[in-house]
Design goal:
This protein is an alpha+beta fold. It has 15 helices and 26 strands. The chain is 23% helix and 24% strand. Helix 4 packs across helix 6 and helix 9 packs across helix 10.
Length: 732
């Protein structure tokens, strides 16, 4: 791996023989484990501006139609998260000279509050080619991490590390994105849109490293850009070998408000969203509930595991080939290019004396080149066998295939591989081994048909049929559903107080617990259409194995499993505690008290917000470093003053909790532990979290509703819309 310094650049071809498709990853951590940021990507032309607003990819516009850019979403890491971006460089339009990768924070948060800011670029096999760390972040609410740019026929990477105080709004405006002004104004420029300034890190602005080829900045002509008639004027911009960002102008002129075009509908989300299915199903025409609707993929007749594996593989691969958005969503993270996809099942491939039959094959063609992956599928509780996967890895390497994809109900964890395989380092051709869980497949289908949209109604219906099949009790694709063989012995050991620290079985239970929480996040995030991630608190420098060992020792000592979930726009982290000694689950959230409010007013306000919450909700007042009065909602509603401390201590917040009994079985029955965790999280979110005001992020994502102050606090861009002139950021 090449470690980069600020301003340095390197050719991707110097680092990998196959860098046509890469994965850019941005990661960070925080002391609390719940710090977060959002990635964005901009495609720039030769003068350092986007060709149109559609060249701006972020949470509301996650993918390019040609597959050149796709935001793959977040994965949890120890103490933080990693956001991955698939970049198919072979599909990038010829008039795009640079691909800028950035990230932004929201709600007044700054990058100085995060640690371990880092960008890496990996090839299609997952091998990390380069890394760039940012150690001098401060008040910035947006950062340019790096860029990929053309030099002739070659793609190169440059480490930038430049920050903005104005958040995503300021960053987008600097590259030619039109940011909405106040929604109440039909047209015309707004001084409140973006009026921030670029914040340089203490080092000099990113420049090419000594010895590298460089060109002087290209100054944009002061005349308005023809393709965007209403635009800021006089915005110098760096060329492909410049500083990595447009040089902000000291001022800007605004066009005549009368000449401004009509304000179009807000948002890349609106522009990109095509067909979604309604959440409420239409009333059935059946005479009674005993009638079963006809299904494209019937499941009731499946009896054996072999039948389930064959059917599940065929159903999934056929839908992937017929719904481009879905197929691309599942394969982009594995290094597959954007192109025509065909899928096959039960293909016989020679291997020694006995041919091998992988469950499936995926082939993608682009520009005459083929990308091929072998697929090995398991359903129900069947585990992947190392010997079988090893055979497919050997076949793929020998035949020049790019990947082997394993698919099962298990959830992969960092540092805990599901199968052990050996690779021959003497082979020049590398094969990537990737894993998908059925829960992730269902999550992606749910996101597309309920929230993000697909190309047409037929595609939406196909995904709906796939989702119905996966959720059928006979499909065997229910996701993680068994806490493992160590679950009962560990529970018995905790009950009899005979479980000692260092017991390997406790580590296995902790790993199963982590898999369960990740699956809960996938399911809940798919249903809500919001990013949902587990919160993992860990000290800096710890490995996943050491973190799990510490949690296992804590389980042996305290008898409790603890986890946190961060749901986008929620007011706090949802904490789940499974107390194996008492057999109870506790779901809770801590919300801060309003700044400057009177204590009694805060208590009454909370009671109004929880008017429809369950009566058995426990409310606990949080004071400086300690707990205060507590009681059930049923008791506190008539007398909110009972929540106030008698000694007048300052109230810092409130903890809201629901309790539920745990299932006793391993989790494959209705009364099982896994089912009880799912039910507890669902009930808490639906009846408590949904009634609380959203976090600051919700308003921060819509600068047109805010003011000049909102933009200067790192507000997000709701969506590029009609061209509105804005004050250009001034260099720090």
């Amino acid at each position: 791996m090449r470690e980069m310094t600020k301003g340095a650049n390197v050719g991707l071809a110097d680092l990998s023989d196959d860098a046509g498709s890469v994965i850019a990853s941005l990661s960070w951590s925080s002391t609390t484990g719940d710090g977060d940021a959002d990635v964005s990507v901009l495609l720039l032309d030769g003068v350092g501006k986007v060709r149109s607003d559609s060249d701006f990819f972020y949470y509301n516009n996650p993918a390019a139609a040609d597959g050149s850019v796709q935001l793959l979403g977040k994965t949890p890491t120890d103490g933080g998260s990693e956001d991955r971006i698939s970049l198919d460089l072979t599909a990038v339009p010829a008039d795009v000279e640079r691909i800028v990768v950035a990230a932004s924070r929201y709600g007044g948060s700054r990058f100085g509050d995060l640690e371990d800011l880092r960008m890496t670029v990996s090839d299609r096999t997952g091998d990390v080619l380069l890394g760039f760390s940012i150690a001098d972040a401060g008040v910035e609410s947006a950062f340019l991490f790096g860029e990929l740019y053309r030099r002739g026929t070659e793609w190169k990477y440059r480490a930038i590390g430049q920050g903005y105080e104005t958040g995503l709004a300021g960053l987008a405006t600097d590259f030619g994105i039109d940011v909405d002004d106040d929604e109440g104004e039909a047209e015309g420029p707004s001084e409140s849109t973006v009026a921030g300034r670029v914040v340089e890190a203490p080092e000099a602005q990113a420049v090419p490293a000594l010895g590298e080829d460089a060109a002087p900045p290209v100054v944009q002509d002061p005349a308005p850009v023809p393709r965007q008639p209403v635009r800021e004027a006089g915005s110098p911009a760096a060329g492909p070998e410049g500083t990595g960002t447009g040089s902000p102008a000291s001022g800007a002129t605004t066009s005549d408000p009368v000449a401004a075009p009509p304000k179009r509908a807000r948002g890349p989300r609106t522009a990109k969203k095509k067909v979604t299915l309604p959440a409420v199903v239409k009333k059935s025409l059946a005479e009674n509930d005993a009638w079963s609707a006809a299904r494209l993929f019937p499941a009731p007749t499946l009896k054996s595991d072999k039948e389930r594996e064959v059917r599940a593989t065929s159903v999934l691969l056929s839908v992937m080939a017929q719904v481009p958005e879905f197929g691309r969503r599942l394969t982009a993270g594995f290094g597959a290019p954007a192109g025509r996809m065909e899928t096959f099942t039960e293909v016989s491939l020679p291997h020694g004396d006995t041919p091998k039959r992988p469950d499936g094959v995926i082939r993608v063609e682009r520009a005459g080149k083929l990308w091929t992956a072998l697929v090995e599928t398991k359903t129900n509780g069947n585990v992947l066998r190392s010997e079988q996967v090893q055979n497919y890895m050997d076949i793929a390497a020998r035949r020049g295939y790019e990947a082997v994809i394993t698919l099962s109900n298990d959830v992969a964890l960092e540092g805990s591989p599901l199968v052990d395989v050996k690779t021959d380092g003497r082979r020049k051709h590398k094969v990537a081994l990737r894993h998908l869980s059925w829960a992730e497949v269902a999550h992606q289908a749910h996101m597309l048909i309920r929230h993000e949209g697909v190309g047409n109604a037929a595609h939406a219906w196909l995904l709906q049929e796939l989702l119905h099949y996966l959720q059928h009790e006979n499909s065997g694709c229910h996701g993680f559903q068994n806490m493992g063989p160590s679950w009962i012995p560990v529970r018995n050991g905790i009950d009899t107080e005979t479980l000692s620290q260092g017991d390997a079985r406790a580590v296995e239970v902790v790993e199963s617990w982590e898999r369960l929480i990740r699956q809960v996040c996938l399911r809940l995030g798919g249903e809500l259409g919001q990013k949902t991630l587990p919160v993992q608190r860990a000290q800096r420098g710890t490995t996943p194995q050491s973190r799990r060992a510490a949690l296992a020792d804590q389980l042996c000592e305290e008898g409790r499993l603890t986890a946190g979930l961060r749901v986008e726009d929620s007011p706090g982290v949802i904490t789940i505690v499974a107390d194996l000694r008492t057999g109870k689950l506790r779901t809770s959230v801590e919300i801060p008290a309003p700044e400057g409010a009177y204590p009694l007013a805060s208590a009454k306000r909370l009671m109004r917000q929880l008017a429809d919450a369950p009566a058995d909700l426990h409310v606990e007042t949080l004071l400086d470093g300690r707990s205060g009065p507590r009681g059930t909602l049923e008791r506190l509603r008539p007398e909110p003053g009972d929540m106030l401390p008698a000694d007048g201590s300052r109230i810092t917040g409130f903890r809201l909790s629901l309790f539920k009994g745990m299932g006793l079985s391993r989790g494959n029955a209705e009364s099982g532990f896994i089912r009880s965790v799912d039910d507890a999280v669902d009930r808490f979110h639906a009846h408590v979290i949904a009634h609380l005001p959203a976090a600051d992020r919700r308003t921060a994502r819509r600068p047109q509703e805010g003011t000049k102050g909102a933009a200067s606090e790192g507000a997000h861009v709701a969506a590029p819309a009609s061209a509105v002139a804005a004050d250009a950021p001034v260099p720090a």
